[in-house]
Specification:
The chain is of the alpha/beta class. It has helices at residues 3-6, 62-68, 71-84, 88-103, 120-128, 141-153, 191-203, 224-236, 241-252, 261-270, and strands spanning 17-19, 30-31, 41-42, 48-50, 109-113, 133-138, 160-164, 178-182, 210-216, 273-282, 285-292. It has a 7-stranded mixed beta sheet, with helices on both faces. Helix 3 (71-84) crosses helix 6 (141-153), helix 4 (88-103) packs across helix 5 and helix 8 (224-236) crosses helix 9. The longest helix is centred in the N-terminal third of the chain and has 16 residues, at 88-103. The termini are far apart. Bound molecules: S-adenosylmethionine. The site of S-adenosylmethionine has 24 residues, from strand 6. Residues 65, 69, 81, 113-118, 120, 137-140, 143, 166-168, 182-184, 187-188, 197 line the site of S-adenosylmethionine. This is Methyltransferase domain-containing protein. Residues 116-209 form the Methyltransferase domain.
């Protein structure tokens, strides 16, 4: 199904992003792909078409994320993320179990920030909690489409509202019962944008609402042994030496993890979250459940 067709109220009035249906590739045509107004680029693979009239917030364009998480990255994402992050599925399963344990089984709304790629947050939580609904927010249309393909295949599109845009662009609403931010924070280089994203997430949560935060949590160069082990994991998955270098280069490109776990917890506190509890760790990666202050 096309992303535009998946947009549901209250987001249907946003500028629509239309992804061409399979078999309708518009190779070579000029298209506007989530770029600031008047900027265009030639579409070389799949045609992503957006009537982009959104004002771009300072340093907060969707464009950088869309460029980084492009079509080729979205296609390989499900496989690559499971190699890059040992325990990818376990982390998602535990996140869903923690939310379920905290929120119970009544109808709840969950904001899934950075939902693109596998849609694993939704696949896990929806299976456990049939009464929950989800908003899948992501500015990278290729990633979002990839995730929605899996969500549709699991019969969950009726419980999932697609929002093509950043958390910061999400319209104000009644407040979500819970939110997730998995694998996003270390892809945002600037500290002030990391802080702003956490603040904006908090603004959209009900008081006391849980947030699952997972990200790489220390500079890569600070742990040479972890870097070596990371490379070894790619070898274990069949990569040759050139591929290992390429894979690690691509994963690290533009990624700036927080300085430490303590720095993550300080960031959470500054954004109005309390009682962070780490529940998962794997090489550079950690995951926490935390709560918006009452
Ligand atoms: C590594 S990927 C997907 C991670 C996914 N949650 C998972 O668990 O596999 C990170 C995604 O975050 C999205 N993203 C980056 N900045 C964002 C923001 N401000 N709001 C929402 N999504 C964002 C990117 O477009 C990208 O698709």
């Amino acid at each position: 199904m096309q992303i535009a067709a998946r947009l549901q109220a209250p987001f249907a009035s946003k500028p629509l992003c239309v992804i061409s249906a399979p078999g309708h590739r518009r190779e070579g045509q000029t298209c506007i792909f989530n770029m600031p107004p008047k900027q265009t680029m030639a579409c070389t693979k799949e045609c992503f078409w957006r009537q982009c009239t959104l004002p771009t917030m300072a340093g907060m364009t969707s464009t950088s994320s869309s460029a980084k998480f492009d079509l080729s990255r979205s296609i390989e994402y499900a496989t690559q993320s499971r190699i890059a992050l040992a325990g990818y599925d376990a982390c998602h399963e535990l996140a869903a179990c923690l939310l379920s344990a905290h929120l119970g089984h009544d109808a709840k709304s969950v904001l899934v920030a950075g939902a693109g790629g596998t849609g694993q947050e939704i696949l896990c939580a929806a299976k456990l909690e049939p009464a929950w609904t989800f908003v899948a927010a992501d500015p990278a249309v290729a990633m979002l489409d990839q995730a929605m393909t899996g969500i549709e295949a699991a019969g969950l599109s009726g419980r999932t509202t697609v929002f093509h845009g950043t958390v910061e662009e999400l319209p104000d609403g009644d407040g979500f019962d819970a939110a997730t931010l998995v694998g996003v924070l270390h892809h945002i280089p600037e500290q002030d944008r990391k802080d702003a994203l956490l603040r904006e997430l908090g603004r959209r949560l009900k008081p006391g609402g849980p947030l699952i935060l997972a990200c790489n949590r220390c500079p890569y160069e600070s742990q040479p042994l972890f870097l070596e082990a990371w490379a070894a994991r790619w070898r274990m998955a069949g990569a040759d030496e050139a591929e290992v270098v390429a894979k690690l280069g691509k994963i690290r490109q533009g990624a700036v993890p927080p300085l430490s776990e303590a720095a993550v917890e300080t960031m959470l506190a500054n954004a109005g979250f309390v009682n962070p509890l780490r529940f998962f760790s794997s090489l550079f990666w950690s995951a926490w459940i935390t709560f918006k202050a009452q």
